[in-house]
Write a structure and sequence with these properties.
Layout: H1 2-15, H2 17-30, H3 39-61, H4 66-90, H5 107-126, H6 140-160, H7 176-184, E1 197-198, E2 201-202, H8 204-209, E3 213-219, H9 230-242, E4 246-251, H10 255-265, E5 271-273, H11 276-282, E6 288-293, E7 296-302, H12 331-383
Parallel strand pairs: 3-4, 4-5
Antiparallel strand pairs: 1-2, 3-6, 6-7
Helix pairs in contact: 1-3, 1-6, 2-3, 3-6, 4-5
Length: 384
Amino acid sequence: MLATTFILSGFVKAVDPLGTQYKIDDYLGAMHLGGMLPGIASLGASVVLAAVEFCLGIFLLFAIQRRLTSRCILLMMVVMTPLTLWLALANPISDCGCFGDAIVLTNWQTFGKNIVLLASAAIVAWWPQEMFRFVSRSNQWIVINYSIVFIAMMALWSLYYLPPFDFRPYHIGTNLRQQWQRTMEGEDLPYADFFIESGDGDITEQVLADTGYTFLLVSPYLEQADDSRLDLINQLYEYTQEHDYVFYCLTASSAKQVRVWRDITGAEYPFCQTDGTTLKTVIRSNPGLLLVKDGVIIRKWSHNNLPELSEAETTLPLEQLEIGKLPTDGPARKIATILLWFVLPLALLTMADRLWMWTHWLRRRKKTTTEDNLTPKNKNSKEK
């Protein structure tokens, strides 16, 4: 249980390092330390935290460096348990973010979980040699290096593109129109803070009621946005104009920042105001792009992999293009990919290592048996 919890906690953090960064910033703000760390430092801390938790869980599972691993886990729990007690008592933030957006716990539930984990960590640290070693000591370096490389690549992939697993309420396939209408009817859902305001007022219902295609360029704060793909964004806007599709840029930046952005980029698309925290939840990219059809999110792109249409494709409507349809790589396929690239290699390594150790043990036993059989004969020959 202890190893599984650390593996899961580290993995979901690595899948969404920006979300972990936002949570670290929330912690610092609750401690009146907001602004003490630059954004790159808190982002680096989120990646390191994810990698440490994941690797410690793997090392514990495989009984690698048993004393050191168990003591590191115990130290982490000794630090985290009082922190979660403070969260439960003071309630400065609603969720500790232990499992990202995958599993949301109340602060008291988190504290109770940590009490159990602290007790488990103490037991493991007291009797570390009782853990069964799945991989021999001579091959443990493979598990160590492979785990570090895997989780680092997962975090970097999620940062450059988008999280492969989206646990937030704005994932691909979400019917925004339906969910937003349920909030407006009084149900307590996370869509209550989603709104789109233009110079003409609130146009949220109008945008979500559109049965056609709508592109939403999302930039929580334009002054922090990556401007390396501006030409491609402008080309996509021109494509929407040629085919009569709707295109809005959603931001929480001030009118002054919008004017600066227009001057720098030559942007001609309309800008709308939306809550900045909500936009950070919608997509983990600044800017990022959503494609909505009939109120349903069917595509999401990071600014690093915006769709590039060929000259022939620009003449075709979205109905005839792949980007105009829901993607085929669903969660099941992504889970299978993780199993193929991480779990399967470690399973094969474990089986190969056990087979090697078993054959080594057989050879050693055979040698011992042979020596035992020869020893009496030698003694008898000497007596004669």
